[in-house]
């Protein structure tokens, strides 16, 4: 099957992504394009889903790199598997080739992301596959990285290797949505997560919030945290909720816990500074409360002063640090300003079937300055799911209201 148009749209001339050409890359990696016909056989799909299963073993650990899995099949049998464990280490294909050894010659390799074609921290996988003598490469999605962007596929085809692109493309994209966002927008993907009652409250009028949702929903949140690079809260959340923001699973990735606080008027004995099992970073402004900074440093907390502390500045800083995904677990005021500044692209709202009442009880999103319903930010690609006794609503902000 010739499906080269997918690749043709993603050429390396898109190295400098702008508003005009971003949509081309988005369609090349399988976003914003009309549903396509199923590509590949059921066996191809099964092998690609196995790649994604392998890729997930490194969940939360690969940034700024993507999650990638690879499977080598010879005569209908899997002869090698691999995944990318973290940035700086070999790519998924390399591990799969090592496992397959000589059996890679004449075999088919399935990879969830287009094989790279550049010398980065590691040599190009395209050359590795050519040297190993594989006969066919089945790719999940095109790599939006301008250093690759179709070049890996072109190189393999030029070497006479059959390449099929787009098998389980949507699932492949879903797994790496944060990596794709990082590449296209030069910011981490911002995910706003909150838990509210049926009448839209995140706490009682007196600020009590433990717990709004069921145990099942809370363990879903722990899994979500483990898949992210950082979790952000504001000073208010530290003062009022004194959260741990941990994943509570021994083996899981521990995201960086980030607190945004302009004046560092924070409690000296917050759980965050007292639990060294996950790293913590406090973002503040130049010259804020030097005594408190010293106290934090003594407790192993990292402090970074930014020239002005806004959600976008925080995201720009976390982008420079190599992060792909940031989970906003803050209160309504910070959430509203993060949304207004385009620091949130995705929303995960847990809704508990409880009513708490209280006209001044806090709500998940503060003032956005809207006066009419027509200004409402309607989520797109919305999914609803039951988690324990709660409902999880998941969706994305429309691009125009939210592009950087
Ligand atoms: N992890 C991964 C790929 N990642 C691609 O390579 C880039 C990182 O290159 P490097 O610095 O050398 O690790 C990353 O941004 C992405 O475009 N490619 C692959 O063929 N297979 C893999 O498993
Ligand atoms: Zn590679």
Automatic annotation (TrEMBL):
Q: Which reaction does it catalyse?
A: 2,5-diamino-6-hydroxy-4-(5-phosphoribosylamino)-pyrimidine + H2O + H(+) = 5-amino-6-(5-phospho-D-ribosylamino)uracil + NH4(+); 5-amino-6-(5-phospho-D-ribitylamino)uracil + NADP(+) = 5-amino-6-(5-phospho-D-ribosylamino)uracil + NADPH + H(+)
Q: Which residues form a coiled coil?
A: none
Cofactor: binding comment = Binds 1 zinc ion.
Spell out where the chain crosses the membrane. none
Q: Say which family it is in.
A: In the C-terminal section; belongs to the HTP reductase family. In the N-terminal section; belongs to the cytidine and deoxycytidylate deaminase family.
* Record-linked NCBIfam families: eubact_ribD, ribD_Cterm
Return the protein name: Riboflavin biosynthesis protein RibD
Q: What is the lineage of its organism?
A: Bacteria, Bacillati, Cyanobacteriota, Cyanophyceae, Nostocales
């Amino acid at each position: 099957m010739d499906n080269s148009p997918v690749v043709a749209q993603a050429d390396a001339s898109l190295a400098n992504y702008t508003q005009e050409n971003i949509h081309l890359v988005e369609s090349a990696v399988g976003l914003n394009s009309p549903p396509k016909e199923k590509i590949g056989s059921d066996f191809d799909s099964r092998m690609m889903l196995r790649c994604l299963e392998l890729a997930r073993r490194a969940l939360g650990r690969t940034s700024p790199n993507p999650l990638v899995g690879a499977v080598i099949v010879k005569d209908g049998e899997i002869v090698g598997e691999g995944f990318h464990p973290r940035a700086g280490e070999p790519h998924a294909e390399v591990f799969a080739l090592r496992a397959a050894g000589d059996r890679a010659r004449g075999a088919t390799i399935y990879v969830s992301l287009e094989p790279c074609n550049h010398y980065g921290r590691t040599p190009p996988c395209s050359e590795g596959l050519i040297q190993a003598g594989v006969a066919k490469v089945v790719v999940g999605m095109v790599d939006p990285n301008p250093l690759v962007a179709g070049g890996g596929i072109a190189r393999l085809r030029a070497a006479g290797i059959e390449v099929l692109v787009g098998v389980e493309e949507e699932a492949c994209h879903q797994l790496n949505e944060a990596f794709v966002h990082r590449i296209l927008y030069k910011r981490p993907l911002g995910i706003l997560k909150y838990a509210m009652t049926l009448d839209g409250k995140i706490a009682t009028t007196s600020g009590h919030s433990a717990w709004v949702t069921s145990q099942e929903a809370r363990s879903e949140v722990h899994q979500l945290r483990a898949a992210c690079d950082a979790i952000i809260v504001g000073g208010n959340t530290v003062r009022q909720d004194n959260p741990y923001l941990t994943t509570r699973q021994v083996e899981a990735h521990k995201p960086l816990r980030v607190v945004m606080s302009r004046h560092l008027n924070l409690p000296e004995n917050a759980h965050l500074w007292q639990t060294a099992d996950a790293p913590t970073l406090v973002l503040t402004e130049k010259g804020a409360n030097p005594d408190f900074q010293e106290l934090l440093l003594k407790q192993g907390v990292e402090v970074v002063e930014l020239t002005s502390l806004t959600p976008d500045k925080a995201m720009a800083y976390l982008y420079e640090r190599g992060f792909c995904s940031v989970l906003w677990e803050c209160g309504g005021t910070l959430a509203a300003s993060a949304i207004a500044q385009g620091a949130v692209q995705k929303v995960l709202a847990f809704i508990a079937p409880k009513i708490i009442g209280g006209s001044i009880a806090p709500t998940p999103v503060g003032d956005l300055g809207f006066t009419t319903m027509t200004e409402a930010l309607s989520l797109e690609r919305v999914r609803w799911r039951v988690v324990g006794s709660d409902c999880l609503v998941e969706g994305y902000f429309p691009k125009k209201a939210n592009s950087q």
